[in-house]
Amino acid sequence: MSDNADQPSPGVAGPPPAAPGQPGHDPVAWHGWLMHQQELRRRQAHADAVAKAAASMGGRVRGAEAAPIRTAALVAVLAAGLATAVFLGDGMGPGLLIAALPAMVAAYVSARAAGRTARPWTVLWALGCVALLGIPALRDSAWPSTLAILAAVLLAGLALHGSRRWPGVLLSPLGFLSTAVSGVGWAWAGVRARGGRGRERWLPVAKASVVAVGLLLVFGALFASADAAFADLLGGLAPDVSLGEGPLRILLFGFGAVLALAGARTAAAPHRWDRFEVAPGKARSRVEWGLPLIVLNLLFAGFIAVQLAVLFGGYDKVLESTGLTYAEYARQGFWQLLWATVFVLGVIALALRWAPRGAAGDRRFVRVVLGVLCLLTLVVVASAVRRMDLYVDAYGLTRLRLSVVVVELWLGLVIVLLMAAGVTGGRWLARGVVGSAAVTVLAFGLVSPDGVIAGSNVARYQREGKIDLAYARELSADAAPALDRLPEPQRSCALIGIRDELRDAGGAPWYATSLGEYRARGVLRERPVTVSLGECRTLGADGIRRSAPTTG
């Protein structure tokens, strides 16, 4: 082995010790030098790997290292878990918002500790999240409440991540999946760090809390046994938790605490989803890009011309020539027009990706072609809504018919936002579309969709003497005030389903009782159901599109 082969690699400050075979060789110093060299190479490899990861897309998206969790955030996380276990074990209602408030406090404390400041969009998303989480407190129906919760998660992701562009808008909710895992380790590290120090700060608080709880239990029990009115008030306010529900409550506690930790960890070090880069497509020439879209515009214009001819020529002539019934004509066209609206949005997204953009004239050309397409699409939206209106007049309003009309109207609003972005610039478009969706979901929950459906069908009964009582029995308690306007026995036949559902649910506590359920119980308490389901069947109330019997 040559001397050069034994010589350590260069790049380290200071002269190397004598190698084996050289004068003055010290085996101990030589071995230490080699170990030092190996450690330096390992550190350099680690630094290179970190730099490579930071330069990659995943490294750029990953947030900075989170600061240690604050004590106030830990307390808020525990409060969120406890509130989830106490208030959500009996169902949704005001308890959902009560359980979410401590989680919001934990996120706020963590964001402030990280030096983040609230921006206008962040405040707007947070307020929208609170409003959406209040929908289950208002509505007994599950479908508007579910939509509201999903929309609240989306707004929470935007508020905590601060996303502005389409990648961030679409990926922000996914950030909670990773922070739910890393948040547990983050909290555990904070607990361990506080285990050996700061005891003089938190131990007195813990002792005082235990004493306060003991005093509340002792004197609360004494006052409750001394006064029946106070006992009734206390029983209505205090959660009813039995020992048999222990596993469920423990599971809910863990679920609520993990969700709160995910929010707090995200607020402390959010992912930067906006750093995802989506390269624009290759710009096309005006002919290659514009010809297909101009042909599509001509097709839309021809369809709209036919719709205007039908509008002024009357439906009877169209029905006679096509052989369709009144309802078939309305229903057949709606779904196709709904899909046409969806496809147009996809066409516009792809067209913008490959649009010519070499000169100012190219940009004006793109705006004109896509603007005409958007205007024609708005007419298609109006035609689709009109067709569904005709179908509802013939057969009544249902959940499916109401929901698809709302979706079609929201798609029309998105078209309007696209037109506005074409004029003013599209930096705000992603947030505008999300905001419009959240407002639509919030309005959908506030108007009580089941109440709207019941009100529409009751009005149709008053006009035509027809109502589908079997479908009315499937509606939630939100429909009770509207169904209460029916005459007997139709009223009782429509309310039987709500009565049975409330009877099976029993006396839910206040934090699990929605406003819709509260009103329905009041309606049934003032005017109970007077007929049985068997008597309703003799009226034909269980069939679809049965005519209600004439009374009097």
Percentage of residues in helical conformation: over 70%
> Given the structure, what is the number of helices?
25
Runs in which pLDDT lies below 50 for 5 or more consecutive residues are 1-13, 541-552
Strand and helix order: HHHHHHHHHHHHHHHHHHHHHHHHH
Question: What Rg is obtained from the alpha carbons, in whole angstroms?
Answer: 33 Å
Q: Strand tally, please?
A: 0
Shape: flat
Cα distance, first to last residue? 117 Å
The average pLDDT is: 80
Portion of residues in beta strands equals under 5%
The major sheet is characterized as: none
Q: What structural class results from the helix and strand content?
A: mainly alpha
Transmembrane segments: 67-88, 95-115, 121-138, 169-189, 210-230, 250-268, 289-313, 333-352, 364-385, 400-421, 428-447
Organism: Streptomyces cirratus
Keywords: Membrane, Transmembrane, Transmembrane helix
Pfam family, one: DUF4153
Describe the structure.
InterPro entries: DUF4153. The chain crosses the membrane at residues 67-88, 95-115, 121-138, 169-189, 210-230, 250-268, 289-313, 333-352, 364-385, 400-421, 428-447. Residues 1-29 are annotated as: Disordered. This is DUF4173 domain-containing protein. Keywords: Membrane, Transmembrane, Transmembrane helix. There is one protein chain. It contains 25 helices and no strands. It has helices at 3-6, 27-55, 57-61, 71-87, 94-113, 120-133, 135-138, 142-161, 166-171, 175-193, 199-226, 228-237, 246-268, 286-313, 315-322, 326-353, 360-395, 399-424, 429-446, 449-464, 469-472, 480-483, 490-505, 515-526, 533-538. It is flat and about 115 Å long. Helices cover 73% and strands 0% of the residues. α4 (71-87) packs antiparallel against α5 (94-113). With 552 residues, it is an all-alpha fold.
